[in-house]
Amino acid sequence: MSNHSSTIGIYSVGLLGASIGLSLKASRFAGTICGFSSPAALSTALATGAIDQGFTYDQLGEVVPNLDILFLCSPINTITGTIHRLSSCTLKHGCIITDVGSTKREIMAAAEQLPSHVNFIGGHPMAGSEKSGPAAAVPDLFKNAMYAVTPAKAVSVDTLNRFTSFLQTSLGCRTIVLAADAHDSIVAATSHIPHILAITLVNHVRQMESRLPGTYAMTAGSFRDMTRIASTPFPIWNDIFKTNGDEVRMQIDDCIAALQDIKNRLHNNTIGELFDSAKETRSKIASVAGGDLNGSENAAFPQNERN
């Protein structure tokens, strides 16, 4: 993982993939960055300096034997398919294969088919944007963002520590090590459920507008802040719900129970307790998570599109 001799591959040079490349360059990474993508995406990534060399997806098998690290930046189902493809490729001894998928259980299960001389470390940077594609990439996308890593059981502590240190130095992120099951439960609560609630609120207001014209005109800052993430295209979420649907459904039940409790509290005028606990909890979250909870964080947009 030398800064001067490593060769890094980025499979799918979209928003996240190209931002990884730009972040590496900004950190003075002096190795070689190889991008795998569509011709159009490669052209943009080469022009912006996100990658040094560009290859089409079908050239992966020719190039991957030279890679020290390979980032898989496609949608979740494509990531698992690429891992299957990699299992029959020649891979450098000790190389690290990682990904940026928004759920981890199925990806980590797929990684079990990789040869034993390869280190698979799952990853999920809590960063993104409502924009997509390599033209939207920025070098500071991951700065101060939390980056979850889910190492395979065979990965040594030394390899894991070197990789997390590499991420912190190269991307400017913070890292947290989680088991895949714990990761998927946590992101269901902190990312997937918020999206469900956002689209529910937007569709509720749409129904209100049909009954009471003028509803749209009365939306203001609170509605804007709570529903900003509702504009994310569904294809990005399709894989997430397919691979974490059981956890999301369970937590939806928890939310329904919580809303019923709020409804009951409105009858007996005890809802103020929930306002107090929410204010206290939000302050704790801000101190632990770091960053701005007033709207500048971009973790709500899991843009791991294939380009």
Write the layout of secondary structure elements.
Layout: E1 7-11, H1 15-26, E2 32-36, H2 39-48, E3 53-55, H3 60-63, E4 69-72, H4 76-86, E5 96-99, H5 105-111, E6 119-125, E7 146-151, H6 157-171, E8 174-177, H7 180-211, H8 221-227, H9 234-268, H10 272-289
Parallel strand pairs: 1-2, 1-4, 2-3, 4-5, 5-6, 7-8
Antiparallel strand pairs: 6-7
Helix pairs in contact: 4-5, 7-9
Describe the overall structure.
Helices cover 49% and strands 12% of the residues. The protein is α/β, with parallel strands linked by helices. It has a single domain (1-307), classed as NAD(P)-binding Rossmann-like Domain (Rossmann fold). The protein has an eight-stranded mixed β-sheet with strand order 3-2-1-4-5-6-7-8, sandwiched between helices. Helix 4 (76-86) packs parallel to helix 5 and helix 7 crosses helix 9. The relative contact order is 0.14. Residues 295-300 have low confidence and may be disordered.
